[in-house]
Write a structure and sequence with these properties.
homodimer, mainly alpha, disordered N terminus
């Protein structure tokens, strides 16, 4: 990890303003890390009866953070720094630091502390309500919480402000500078390529056999297999760890030094935990790859949630669903479940992981249908936030859109509108996944261009060269550069959906032998 | 839990001062809970490479807490309340609240924030150093951290102030009002009864056979057995949970709603996890028994660490090492390890748990030698704090005292001076265990007097009547009453070591058929 330090522009040493800002932000980030820890605990270990008291704790901490982010001392310091930061004598890291601090300051200044605290309180209870509702297929018990979350998020958007739609204000939080109309424009070709490909695949008559992924797989052994796959990806367990939670996720408490992830094994379908491990592993190696000098600053971690998802999806799909990758890694799967996989080879396994079939569960979706799952959620959350969809109509609308986009319909809300954790806390995240897929294809193209023998190395079990390139070109920089600037540095151009449509079409024309 | 509320004096409603104090303390306790969560995580799940960054996080949070505890607004409010609190119109809960707030305020006002932050930082790294040192039997690598902790704790004592010795200032933190000379006086008869009994037992020639406790016991099954025993004790898993850690402990993040504990199974000796579960369970049911109205105040939880240990030791020893208890609970042990225990009965198992044998490990010690382990630690930490013992002499001194008090000597520092977690964070806690044993015997005597059919009910598998009595008389009150006042309410007199010497002598004269 240490060698990265020399590759990124360091913070300017000996500059009083930068030093003061760093000290100020260090403490804020320490508290942000503890806030993430409280959430991690709530998702992994917290007893069900502690939701209310945890809500108070989170609210108090959010209040303290709000106090820090809106402190006049910070405002004055940022004013001074902004006046000089674009001059010589400052590095890109300095500029990124000031920019991120300003973004947080501006946002916090617009939000009343009471609202921030109430959101934290509601979020804790809402999470518990969602967990129970999903377990008991009981949307009605979750609906009031969802209603409160929608109302609070609308209030947030009104405080933050927006030009076109309320939803813009939420989107910007996860993807700086992104607007609803820009997302609509980027998603149009994605929807088109997905539905077209799906039609061609269904018409082809080709069936991919994924029976080798089904069977009996103990939770314990699946977690152990995740461990092996993550280790081989370069995930560093001395700065990380795995837990089990109802919904897989990655979080960090001081990147790059403490980055953890969860999986959620399905006892009858090995694909879930394997692909979740690689997906979360992608997030995790990104966080672990931040230059150590960025620790305890808002620059440690990802450039945006879209860029973050580009890394999870890059590892999960472009790499983790390729035949070359499994040629190099399949032995670990066979060792974990020898009886089950004795007669299966890497190519069969990899092919099974690419079976295209409209299904109900987003995180298990193939690459062709995945973005349709996202577009459904994006359209629905946009409508909720913009006031065009009432909570009680949500399950019906969800099912109708699944019918329209994927030709299937959930038979339970647990498999439908309740499947994802996201709406227990807020809105505006879902587009990150599809943005991630777009960025991912573009980065993957640059990566392959760099290594002429990419597939050979991958098939030989080497993934370190990929991680090395990603760390050097992306991970080490954390959030120093914003998404568009980063994409230009890495790929030579701003995000362009053509990379994704080409990638997806090429890959699935080959698998399904389409003309 | 709710019915307890009516039994304790509630906080006065509608009183502006009490309301303001409660609101102020609620936020402090929320942050204290997050501080405990950070420690829990560090002990159970945190990756080894995260110690340094966690140290910064804890330090920052301690700084925020210090800021809150030393806030002028709190000082002014306490001044106003202290002027009226002993008049009519205030309840014991109000008085307890003001007293505890004042105690914390006074202490915080005496400590510089920088020192508090440094302690937190050192503690996180020191814990990691201790864990590694114990694993590798490498005292030398822990010694510098211990040295820093001693220096910091001496500095704390100097800031706090004391009449006789520095150690008094630390002791008072865990046991309000307790002094070194009072501890010396209470411990003298304990040491005497322990050494006398030990001599008589060794001279008796009677051997208690504990071979039934040895064998092969999987970690997983031991944790599952702990789960069953805890459930039957009345520990509420909807407000709790078990984890595994290098040293068993109990902590809470908002008593009574989130109280968790750890065990540390020994694969070859079932006694460790069974007795640790009941011991930690005692702490945990105490915390879970606080009246819900006390939540988010410094009154939720125990009256002192000595009273806390009285409950862990009461459940562990007076109850959990009795034949009557195991007549009611042994079936759970047999179900967990059927092959091993098929031919063993409850009486044999209970008798094995009472084998008296000088051993190296404190938490596995029998009741006769246990307090000698404590007295060794107490004498050593007192000497370190008072400047009479250098760190480099500690292992030798430890071993010499084990030879003197217990007639045995550790062959490794891991089994010697490195065995306990405590010195990685501070000093002054160890006397709590022996104070706990004294209080425990006195409370146990009152409890047995109350129920003439105590043993019959216990042997019938009932422990709910014990928990009910303890909750009603002790647990519900949290820290409303200080130790001496509480002991008087519950037992009719202040702490008196005669209860313990009588209990111990009676119990072991019977087991070892002494004249």
């Amino acid at each position: 990890m240490l060698e990265q330090e020399t590759m990124i522009p360091p913070f300017t040493k000996g500059n009083a303003g930068i030093t003061e800002l760093l000290e100020y932000l260090h403490e804020i980030e320490d508290l942000e890390a503890l806030s993430s820890l409280a959430e991690w605990d709530q998702n992994t270990e917290m007893p069900e009866g502690a939701g209310e008291v945890r809500g108070y704790q989170s609210a108090t901490l959010q209040g303290v953070l709000h106090e820090r982010w809106t402190n006049q001392r910070l405002g004055t310091l940022l004013n001074k720094l902004n006046a000089v930061i674009n001059g010589s004598g400052y590095t890109d890291a300095d500029r990124g630091l000031v920019r991120e601090a300003q973004r947080n300051y501006d946002r916090a200044m617009k939000l009343p502390r009471k609202l921030v605290e109430e959101m934290a309180r509601v979020q804790a209870s809402s999470f518990e309500a969602w967990r129970r509702a999903r377990e008991h297929n009981d949307f009605a018990s979750f609906a009031p919480w969802l209603g409160r979350t929608v109302a609070l998020q609308r209030e947030v958007a009104d405080h933050i402000g927006y030009t076109e739609t309320r939803y813009d204000a939420l989107l910007d939080f996860f993807e700086p500078g992104m607007t609803t109309s820009a997302v609509d424009k980027l998603f149009t070709p994605v929807r088109e390529v997905s539905t077209t490909l799906l039609r061609r695949i269904e018409a082809s008559g080709v069936i991919v056999d994924d029976s080798c992924l089904q069977g009996e797989f103990s939770e314990e052994k699946q977690v152990a297999l995740s461990d092996v796959l993550l280790r081989r990806m370069g995930y560093d367990f001395s700065h990380g760890g795995i837990a089990v939670s109802p919904h897989p996720f990655t979080t960090s408490f001081g990147s790059p030094f403490d980055v953890r992830l969860t999986v959620h094994p399905d006892m009858h379908f090995i694909q879930s935990s394997v692909m979740a491990a690689i997906h979360e592993g992608g997030h995790a190696v990104y966080e672990q790859g931040s230059a150590p000098t960025l620790v305890r600053t808002p620059l440690a971690g990802g450039a945006s949630m879209g860029v973050h998802e580009s890394q999870s999806r890059l590892w999960e799909n472009a790499i983790g669903r390729s035949e070359a990758y499994w040629k190099g890694q399949f032995a670990a799967v066979q060792q974990a479940f020898p009886e089950h996989f004795v007669a299966i080879d890497a190519a069969t396994f990899a092919r099974a992981l690419n079976k295209v079939k409209p299904d109900l569960i987003r995180i298990e979706a193939d690459e062709v249908t995945y973005n349709l799952h996202i577009i459904v959620r994006y359209e629905l959350e946009k409508a909720m936030i913009n006031g065009d969809l009432a909570i009680e109509s949500l399950p019906g609308q969800w099912n109708a859109m699944y019918q329209e986009y994927l030709g299937i319909e959930p038979t339970s809300n647990s498999e439908g509108v309740l499947q994802d954790i996201h709406w227990s806390s807020g809105f505006g995240y879902f587009p990150s996944y599809t943005l991630g897929n777009l960025y991912s294809a573009q980065i993957y193209s640059a990566l392959r261009q760099h290594y002429s023998n990419f597939d050979e190395r991958l098939a030989g079990g080497d993934t370190a060269f990929i991680l090395g390139w990603l760390r050097k070109n992306i991970y080490a920089f954390g959030a120093i550069y914003q998404p568009d600037a980063l994409m230009k540095r890495v790929t030579g151009e701003v995000p362009n959906p053509a990379f994704f449509t080409r990638y997806l079409t090429g890959k699935f024309e080959a698998i399904y032998q389409l003309q």
